[in-house]
Amino acid sequence: MGSSFEERKDNKNDFEDYFQIDEWRIVEKGFSPDKNRFAESVMSLGNGHMGIRGNFEEHYSGDSLQGTYIAGVYYPDKTVVGWWKIGYPEYYAKVPNAADFIGIDVEIGGERLDLAQWHLEDFKRILNMQKGVLRREFTAASPEKDNRIEVSVERFLSLARREVAAISYSITPLEKPVDISFSPHIDGNIRNEDANYDEIFWEEVDRGVHSGGGQLTLRTKKSEFNVATAMRSELSGLQVEEGTGIEREPIERKKFIAENIQVSAERGQEINLTKYIGVTTDRDYKKERTAARAEDRVREAASCGYDGLLDEHVGEWQEIWRDNDIKIEGDKKAQQGIRFNIFHLNQTYTGHDPRLNIGPKGFTGERYGGATYWDTEAYCLPFYLNSKDDEIARNLLLYRYHHLDKARENADKLGLDGALYPMVTMNGEECHNEWEITFEEIHRNAAIVYAIYNYIRHTGDRQYLADYGFEVIAAVARFWSDRAHYNPRRDKYMIIGVTGPNEYENNVHNNWYTNRMAVWCLNYAFDVKNYLEKEHPERSEKLLSRLELTEEELERWRDITEKMYLPRWQEREIFEQQDGYRDKKLDKVSDLDAEDLPLNQNWSWDKILRSPYVKQADVLQGLYFLSDQYDRETKKKNFDFYEPRTVHESSLSPCIHAVIAAEIGYPHKAYELYLRTARLDLENVNRDTEDGLHITSMAGTWMAVVEGFAGKKAEGGELSISPMLPESWDSYQFHLNFQNSLLQVSISESGIDVELIGGDPLTLTIYEDQHRITRDSPAEVPLSGGEKRNG
Ligand code: BGC
């Protein structure tokens, strides 16, 4: 009975060493078809505008999840329910698997190259995170073994030209001269594996193909997004001029265009095909111009050439790494883990378009439909706030501001005042498909307001409150006021019938986190109102009259903040997760057998709901958000009680626990949880990486390092750090963007070194002491305890 996460992991995980440890690359050496979906997720590429899984270019008859996703394009897939109830969302928005544009069919001497059939030697799939390039190399012999070729393929989705992708595909015959046929194509005959009714989401609008390339335009049914994909292919490595000795034949059929290119190659002669791709949508252009724009993109790309495009793209990555890298010395596994997380965050969201957001799986799979969850505000925002220009975080806030009317409609549909932001959304409308669970997770509303608070204290951009923030804050406060009810028997306000962040409890009463955050939102609404009245009196007057905020309503808000019921377990001196939690059989995770875990794959839902097990930070999520309002002892007592009962079956869980563990002096625990989040996908810890990567929890990995090990806080708008050095690390270094100052923080056994590398001088608290940091005076402070902590 009972085993720690580390032991369990050691027992079962045959994914742990699948990829080689390398600081900048993810290297798959040798091909394992049974792990292909897992590797495809890990090897995904994205550039904010689009993304593709690590699928093969050539035909592959083995198991694979083909995936191409275009940002902001969704399909409203009709909800599946047994018994329809009022309030169910009509549809679950899904990012549709879009036209496959990487495809290049290859025939060697008339035999079709298929990695499921051919004999492979020296197979390598390498994701170069420094350059944002995916490469494959292998030698393949045809089933009869009379053709042997060497293949190397490289591709990237340009960060410099977001609508452009490029592939360089090279073949060298090893045994004898052969005829090679390439068929670069765009294939719109694709489907989503998770389609609720097996529907095809796309219809064709237009297609055209000619010698040299072509375009295919598809439209999503119902939501009517047009997506045009254009291609252009060039051959090189020939002994003759292109155009002589080569046959090119355009091919087209419904939702499919290709060009068949035949060429003869000598033994040892490398033939290269470069495929340029352009992908445009009518989110950016008029419908009738979308296809022409995609063709423009490939024409421009071809005239720049593969190497030119690659240089531009690598240049963009260089800038990203200069600003966003976390360097860890002495622990290559940890280094690879954190870079993998930072890499994928940057591939998923670039922050230039406030209509876009961050899906829990980014562009790496179908799960969670590419929709926006509270994950963005609660977990992702700190990464973007501290590592990017303020505009990026601001765009994440504006995304919600633009959805305010829909959030009002959403509250109204449930018969409530104010605004209720959706748990799952593409366009502001609620579209969750796990209705029974997520419908009652009204706590997400608090995260939207908390994000505004977090943004203001990091950027100092208080103007945002006057321009946009207060409208959102007031609408959410109004919702809480209506959703809470007064209970005269206890003389308390209560919020009943909710699901807290811990989704392994549904329809509970008085979830401490939800009630606590509701009070916090109401108090913050007063703070902001007071600030506006003082600093922006005219705007404030206009806003208050537009929002029709009466004294009576404000009085109720005040009353709620004073009389909200917040369940406590007095004898244990902890907050009680919800009414009645203490009456459960309070077993710990260590009481479980290894085979029980993960519970969500082994236990009935009924058994899970009855159990005391916590899926993810719940009370602790509140102590994390409102960290400055609780002392260390309170955090420790709650951690000691809840963490041993937490199964961390949401990828969002370990990071919050790691941050608190570091703060309360549990360095071993903090490190164990850090590793669990940093290498979650590289080692397939939750056994679901094949569905896609856990993108939103990747920002949590960043939190575990910067807010956990380095103890960074921004309480009251003042920056402080309180670093420790994990035992297995020699040093670590990162940048912090805070209120117009850019700092470089380096932590090693010899001390903490903070330099101002951009922007204005600032006052930083290190441990207990304040330091004024200017260009000429960095801070140099010994590491507390003088030695490494943890294990
Ligand atoms: C978690 C939620 C989260 C969602 C998307 C669920 O497993 O419990 O908190 O919002 O995944 O990441």
Automatic annotation (TrEMBL):
Every Glycoside hydrolase family 65 C-terminal domain range: 715-772
InterPro entries assigned to the protein according to its UniProt record, in alphabetical order: 6-hairpin_glycosidase_sf, 6hp_glycosidase-like_sf, Gal_mutarotase_sf_dom, GH65_N, Glyco_hydro_65_C, Glyco_hydro_65_M, Glyco_hydro_65_N, Malt_Pase/Glycosyl_Hdrlase
Domain Glycoside hydrolase family 65 N-terminal: residue ranges: 28-283
GO biological process: carbohydrate metabolic process
The Glycoside hydrolase family 65 central catalytic domain, residue ranges: 339-703
One Pfam short name: Glyco_hydro_65C
Gene Ontology MF term list: carbohydrate binding; glycosyltransferase activity; hydrolase activity, hydrolyzing O-glycosyl compounds
Annotated positions binding substrate: W374, D375, K615, Q616
Catalytic machinery residues: E503
Domain of life from the UniProt record: Bacteria
PANTHER family per record: GLYCOSYL HYDROLASE-RELATED, MALTOSE PHOSPHORYLASE
Family to which this protein belongs: Belongs to the glycosyl hydrolase 65 family.
Protein name, UniProt field: Maltose phosphorylase
